[in-house]
Specification:
TIM Barrel, alpha/beta, 8-stranded parallel β-sheet, 41% helix, 379 residues, 12% strand, two-stranded parallel ribbon
Amino acid sequence: MNGPKNQGRSYGRWADGGIGLSITGNVMIDRRAIGEPNNVSVEDERDLPLLQQWASAGTRGGTALWMQLNHPGKQSPKGLNAATVAPSAVPFDPQMQSFFATPRELTVEEIHDIIRRFGTTAAVAKKAGFTGVQIHGAHGYLVSQFLSPKHNVRTDEWGGSPENRRRFALEVYREIRRQVGPEFSVGIKLNSADFQRGGFTEEESLEVIRALSEEGIDLIEISGGTYEAPAMTGRKQLVQKASTQSREAYFLEFAEKARSTTKTPLMVTGGFRSRQGMNDAIASGATDFVGIARALAIEPDRPSRLLSEQEPRYQVKPITTGIALVDRAGMMEVAWYARQMHRIAHGKDPRPNESAIWSLLASLATNGLRTFRTQRARA
């Protein structure tokens, strides 16, 4: 298994902190295609004992623990994998091309292999004791790339129309369901939109939601953005006008549209800061679940505090370095919160006020070393 072997410590602490549904970070379905150095990768049962330990810790106290399944597609830093693949050989926007290479277009045979891999990893997760899986179909990773007309310019059955572009997501769900059976929980994380010119739109997202709902998917988590347009980090939303900010959640308005199209349970993640904001969102009927991912990285027991009618100790806030290229790409948000989670994984407390510049320097050094080790292991 690539990645740290102390996942159980993190997810055990979050389970002890009162979380109801814990969805893991990226678990890659192919060791040849990872999105960050040290990603966990599961493609067979060779690491089943470690996965069982992880599942046992993460389900303490009756917590539901879902494994998030992902393939990065072209959204993998240069040099990390031997090659990067995507629906089409579309390069990143110019400001990102120094970080990400132009991918190679997937063959039809490779597409079918990746679909099978999603199902296999889901089956391993079930055997290990996870209570469900989530397909990562957001934030510019491979499933999201297939959905986007900006990144998917194929003219075969996997592209060329909204129906064909969503075929990959539907086939991934069907293969997972085939391998895990009807009772195992399967959800998806889906963009409300890409927030890019010529990208995935809200109208298309609603059509994907309708299609997945008809297939019987168990939960749809609503998010938005990609590395090129990182709406999920919330920097713009956190400085929005007060009338909009009072609702807190970034994607709640889209969730209201989704609710009118589906009875499938919905989850909204991003922007929630207070008990009142969360209660209001659920009471409105727009969402059934409230996601507090970044909050858990700085306050692992926040769910228990909220359930006991206490306000959070620390607020999620924008993480900026003052370096425009870094801040605009949203990479600092990922690196800063990843450092806090690494501290939890090593039995330490997070540092909610850690300097962004210090975190950036430390992350560059750590990721450089991990990338080097990954390349050596592949050689």
